[in-house]
């Protein structure tokens, strides 16, 4: 009865309580039997303050591609932005378009050490040209114009003065007293760079959503951009749940295990380029978890929990999200993995990951990673996979997409000796995942399979 009432919309519940009847009447929903019956039968989905996690009506097991498409369509940037110097921009997500303040290169210049002249002044056959006094060097331009039929000593990177449009390599020249000689055959414009041939002034060089690399910073500096508008770092709160958890290195009670998920998820979040808000481990106590979620919503942009995401007596994550009216339990057809509890807590997205570390890692990489990229302003993220020959055999049942712990050796991909999701050692052994599609079939050594290195899940 309590679960049924919790599923009712606020307006329906208010109308039920307003019935003019003895106490027993409104307790039993007199006059609203149809609404209560539908709620009891589970036909009415829980109300959401936002529909970003709501599944279509009638959906039970959700194919992985459909789940990813729903997330991609519904999530968006949630962080603010700030302006930073280039020295503080590495790894940040660009928030605004960057345009070149000046061309690169800003002037025509020489690509080699050699001698410059006007190509049109050359005659037929081998050439002998008198030299003008002086030279052009990078940062020290030649002050004057080179007359037609004469040559000037130029060094790599030097701006080409008036009268020079072609440079011959110094190794192709014989130098005499005040003159040079070289063979015929040089082409007009040889060994020079045009002004703006890389990028012109005012051109767009970087688009919003890009995760800035060292090369991007060099590009910005080259065109005169010193400060960039970037997104504030995504803050990710991490919570482990369960009475059975103890901190590594501490004494344990009978039946307890060490918390492996929080160190793993914290490290993943750091590798993704986000800030970690470590909220510790929370016992199977609904009030304590509520306080942790409240703190996560206040201090972070997204919350990752592990454990308590199913529908058991001690699954308080899903219970609290249901209570808040913003819960959607996605039964995604993947292995390893259990239902993902997705919802909003005080308008903050919550990803309730499985408690099993293997399933938690797979779900974090496959679902939370691209979702957090969207929330961070970087846009949807898809890891790069590769088709490689298998060095293993397997008979796969149809129905679920499977992820096997794997690594490459001698040009073939091998998988961990056991598919048991409790074998945490396989996570350390592996260097990536083999992704097997939903269709059933038999894999034999040499067959092509898709391999996704763990490195492909890192920053885009």
UniProtKB/TrEMBL annotation:
Protein's name according to its UniProt entry: Molybdopterin molybdenumtransferase
A cellular component annotation (GO) from this entry: cytosol
Keyword Nucleotide-binding annotated: no
Function: Catalyzes the insertion of molybdate into adenylated molybdopterin with the concomitant release of AMP.
GO MF entry, a single one: molybdopterin molybdotransferase activity
Domain of life (superkingdom): Bacteria
Pathway(s) the chain acts in: Cofactor biosynthesis; molybdopterin biosynthesis
Family membership noted in the UniProt record: Belongs to the MoeA family.
One protein family per Pfam: MoeA_C
Catalytic activity reported: adenylyl-molybdopterin + molybdate = Mo-molybdopterin + AMP + H(+)
Lineage: Bacteria, Pseudomonadati, Pseudomonadota, Alphaproteobacteria, Rhodobacterales
């Amino acid at each position: 009865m309590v679960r049924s009432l919790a599923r009712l919309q606020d307006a329906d519940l208010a109308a039920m309580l307003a019935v003019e009847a003895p106490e027993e009447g409104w307790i039993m929903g007199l006059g609203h039997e149809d609404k209560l019956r539908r709620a009891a039968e589970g036909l009415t989905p829980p109300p959401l303050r936002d529909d970003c996690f709501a599944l279509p009506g009638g959906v039970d097991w959700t194919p992985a591609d459909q789940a990813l498409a729903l997330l991609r369509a519904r999530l968006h940037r949630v962080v603010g932005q700030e302006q930073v110097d280039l020295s503080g921009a590495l790894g940040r997500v660009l928030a605004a378009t960057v345009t070149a303040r000046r061309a690169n290169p800003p002037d025509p210049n020489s690509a080699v050490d050699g001698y410059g002249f006007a190509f049109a002044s050359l005659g037929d056959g081998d050439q002998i040209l008198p030299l003008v006094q002086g030279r052009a060097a990078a940062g020290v331009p030649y002050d004057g114009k080179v007359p037609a039929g004469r040559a000037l000593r130029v060094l790599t990177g030097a701006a080409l003065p008036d009268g020079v449009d072609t440079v011959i390599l110094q190794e192709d020249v014989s130098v005499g007293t005040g003159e040079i000689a070289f063979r015929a055959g040089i082409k007009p414009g040889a060994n020079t760079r045009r002004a703006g041939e890389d990028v012109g002034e005012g051109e767009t060089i970087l688009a919003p959503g890009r995760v800035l690399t060292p090369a991007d910073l060099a590009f910005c500096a080259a065109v005169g951009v010193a400060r960039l508008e970037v997104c504030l770092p995504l803050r990710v709160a991490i919570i482990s749940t369960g009475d059975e958890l103890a901190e590594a290195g501490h004494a344990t009670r009978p039946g307890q295990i060490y918390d492996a998920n929080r160190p793993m998820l914290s490290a993943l979040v750091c590798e993704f380029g986000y800030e970690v808000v470590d909220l510790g481990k929370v016992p199977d106590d609904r009030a304590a978890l509520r306080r942790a979620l409240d703190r996560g919503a206040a201090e972070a942009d997204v919350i990752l929990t592990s454990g308590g995401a199913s529908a058991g007596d001690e699954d308080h994550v899903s219970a609290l999200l249901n209570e808040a009216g913003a819960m959607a339990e996605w039964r995604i057809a993947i292995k390893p993995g259990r239902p993902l509890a997705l919802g909003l807590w005080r308008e903050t997205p919550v990803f309730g990951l499985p408690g099993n570390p293997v399933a938690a890692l797979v779900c974090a990489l496959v679902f939370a990673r691209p979702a957090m990229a969207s929330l961070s302003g970087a846009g949807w993220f898809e890891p790069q996979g590769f088709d490689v020959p298998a060095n293993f055999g397997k008979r796969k049942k149809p129905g679920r997409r499977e992820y096997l712990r794997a690594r490459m050796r001698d040009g073939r991909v091998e998988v961990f000796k056991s598919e048991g999701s409790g074998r945490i050692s396989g996570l350390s052994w592996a260097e990536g995942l083999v992704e097997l599609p939903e269709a059933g079939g038999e894999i034999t050594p040499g067959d092509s399979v898709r391999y996704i290195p763990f490195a492909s899940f890192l920053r885009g």
